[in-house]
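Subject: Sanity check before I submit

Could someone independently write out the structure tokens for this chain? I want to compare against mine line by line before I put it in a report. The sequence has 89 residues.
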Amino acid sequence: MLAVLPFENLGAPEDEYFADGMTEEIISRLSAIQSIGVISRTSVYKYKSEQKTIPEIAEELGVQYILEISKPGYVEGFNQFHRFFSGHN
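---
Independent answer below. Compare away.
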């Protein structure tokens, strides 16, 4: 199982809607792949405001993998950072 953590907006506060929309789109597209189990958006959104470690989140959600994405400020196009973690050390 995989959890996609809420997209972290590192840009302007008014771009928060974009970060949320990207999280939903990634979850939706990954969920369409039958061989990948993805945790629902409602289950992961509580981690948008919580400060927990990746292993803590993985254990609480019962997942093996975590995808974390952040969007820095807008500079000549869309930039993003991806980090893919195994949920257990």
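---
OP: Matches mine. For the report I'm noting this point. The radius of gyration is 13 Å.
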